[in-house]
């Protein structure tokens, strides 16, 4: 039944030799799949009658009868269960299937697209949250590393300053000790140095004194040496010559003297 894009179904009892949409014996209900959840209107007493007559439901009709609890009711009656127990079991069965139909309602393409978009938005939001979390963790890690590096540099600077201060103290102490020694050396008087020199001179041996005196005499002789003496000394090396010009006048003077 129905029209294009608006199907409606009728549940009937028909001869199996007839066509699906052909002549039927009795109408037993309606089925509308377009509403959410789908609605089913059944004539329960006539369905039980035809089932008792040996009618075999099709697969679709069997699913509908099972969902509505009609097959369960027939099964319990065949077992001889009391009506109260059958009614309670059928009620619980229908409530359970109604809850399932409410949670698993058939989705239209529009609803499906909307659900897909919602899922995509949720996925993107989760991804952005994860990215922000990782970025925050990386920034926190970088901050901690920077603080650790600053502390390390400050510690090294303090150690270097401490070492420099200790070296300066040691250098100052060494300089102070050197100044004290220099002051002791400066405070020594010239008289003391003269006395020390005199003590050293008196400590010399007589031989050293004689050698010193002879050395002074030689120095004086060297100073008093005349150029003629130096010439004579040079003449000892050169061939000896007789100064004729100087001696000849003296000999002539001796010859002129009268003989006694």
Helix and strand topology:
Blueprint: E1 2-3, E2 6-7, E3 9-13, E4 26-32, E5 39-42, H1 44-52, H2 59-67, H3 70-79, H4 83-103, H5 109-186, H6 190-202, H7 206-224, H8 227-237, H9 244-256
Antiparallel strand pairs: 1-2, 3-4, 4-5
Helix pairs in contact: 3-4
Can you characterise this structure?
- The protein has helices at 44-52, 59-67, 70-79, 83-103, 109-186, 190-202, 206-224, 227-237, 244-256; strands spanning 2-3, 6-7, 9-13, 26-32, 39-42.
- With 260 residues, it is mainly α.
- Among the domains are: 2-106, S16 Ribosomal Protein, Chain: A (2-Layer Sandwich); 107-159.
- The strands form two sheets. A three-stranded antiparallel β-sheet has the order 3-4-5.
- Helix 3 packs antiparallel against helix 4.
- The relative contact order is 0.03.
- Residues 200-214 and 222-249 have low confidence and may be disordered.
How many helices does DSSP assign? Answer: 9
The first-level CATH class name of the domain at 2-106: Alpha Beta
* C-alpha geometry: rod-shaped
Number of strands: 5
Biggest beta-sheet profile: 3 strands, antiparallel
Percentage of residues in strands:
5-15%
Category by helix and strand content: mainly alpha
- Percent of residues in helices comes to over 70%
What is the CATH superfamily classification of the domain at 2-106? Answer: Ribosomal protein S16
